[in-house]
């Protein structure tokens, strides 16, 4: 497989190279494309109401306080996961953990960049594909663009973000990534029918 | 699929995201070391297990991950209402005639 070949090549060049799970894997089906997203910086942020202003300032975006919403600015996305819990994903290469370190207000920021992998599901049948394993209502009324939620996909927990009307970002733990990707691939092939 | 309203997410979510966490409103004794064995048994093991309306703790584990309380009918499996953890037991249930 291409994946195995890429692995051997990487192993030959450097011993401390970062090797994201399933890197480069893609699947194209009629109506939907599933692909692994490039590595990103991520943190898990827990903070009380009183610290939000200081953290928002340090992170450069306003942390959303409404359930199932997200905020995005300059390649950095903050996803509301719980009443005092957020996931920050930075795709611009900046480190949100370093930004939070400067904040003296009470908070807990944990780097989870390597714990998660992102999978993009895009195309007219994207919602159908995700819905094959996710029981949430993904219609545009219930789950509009920018909506984000921790939920379940088959047997694995995922964080789901709607990046566009026909595009989703699925975040899962890297050890579950093979399962999640395979499930989405199978669903993508089915969604066309 | 059974839909359960999460008081923190403020909407109904599929039951697969939730997990039951036992009976609600069980207060831990303030001085547990001084409890007699009988009282401890009552607190620790004995549950009401009613046929009908039950007050339970539930956790939105694959969602906001918060614990909350729910009133459920064990006969019909219908959720009467849900409310945030720490809030008092509702005095009157919606739709209850008596």
UniProtKB/TrEMBL annotation, chain B:
Q: Where are the transmembrane segments?
A: none
Keywords in UniProt for this one? Answer: Oxidoreductase
Q: Which GO terms describe its molecular function?
A: sarcosine oxidase activity
**GO biological processes:** tetrahydrofolate metabolic process
Q: Give any Pfam family that matches.
A: SoxD
Oxidoreductase as a keyword of this entry, yes or no, is yes
Enzyme category, top tier: oxidoreductase
Keyword check for Oxidoreductase, yes or no: yes
Query: Which EC number applies?
Result: 1.5.3.1
Superkingdom classification of source? Bacteria
NCBIfam families in the record, alphabetically?
soxD (TIGR01374)
Q: What is the official name of this protein in its record? A: Sarcosine oxidase subunit delta
Task: Write down the species.
Answer: Mesorhizobium plurifarium
Name the gene that codes for it: soxD
């Amino acid at each position: 497989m291409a994946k195995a070949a890429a692995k051997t090549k990487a192993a030959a060049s450097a011993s401390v190279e970062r090797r994201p799970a399933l890197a480069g894997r893609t699947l194209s089906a009629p109506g939907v494309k599933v692909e692994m997203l490039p590595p990103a910086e991520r943190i898990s942020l827990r903070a009380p109401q009183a610290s939000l202003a200081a953290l928002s300032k340090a992170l450069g975006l306003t942390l959303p306080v409404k359930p199932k919403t997200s905020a995005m600015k300059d390649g950095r996305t903050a996803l509301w996961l719980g009443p005092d819990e957020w996931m920050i994903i930075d795709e611009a290469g900046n480190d949100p953990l370093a930004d939070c370190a400067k904040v003296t207000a009470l908070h807990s920021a944990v780097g989870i960049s390597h714990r998660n992998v992102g999978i993009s599901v895009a195309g007219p049948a994207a919602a159908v594909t995700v819905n094959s394993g996710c029981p949430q209502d993904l219609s545009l009324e219930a789950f509009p663009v920018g909506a984000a939620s921790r939920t379940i996909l088959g047997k694995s927990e995922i964080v789901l973000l709607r990046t566009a009307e026909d595009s989703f970002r699925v975040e899962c733990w890297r050890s579950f990534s093979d399962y999640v990707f395979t499930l989405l691939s199978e669903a993508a092939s089915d969604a066309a029918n | 699929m059974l839909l359960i309203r999460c008081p923190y997410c403020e909407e109904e979510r599929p039951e697969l995201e939730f997990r039951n966490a036992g009976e609600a409103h069980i207060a831990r004794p303030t001085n547990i070391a001084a409890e007699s064995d009988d009282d401890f048994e009552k607190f620790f093991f004995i549950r009401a297990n009613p046929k009908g309306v039950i007050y339970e703790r539930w956790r939105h584990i694959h969602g906001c991950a918060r614990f909350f309380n729910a009133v459920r009918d064990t006969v019909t499996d219908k959720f009467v209402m849900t409310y945030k953890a720490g809030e008092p037991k509702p005095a009157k249930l919606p739709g209850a005639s008596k």
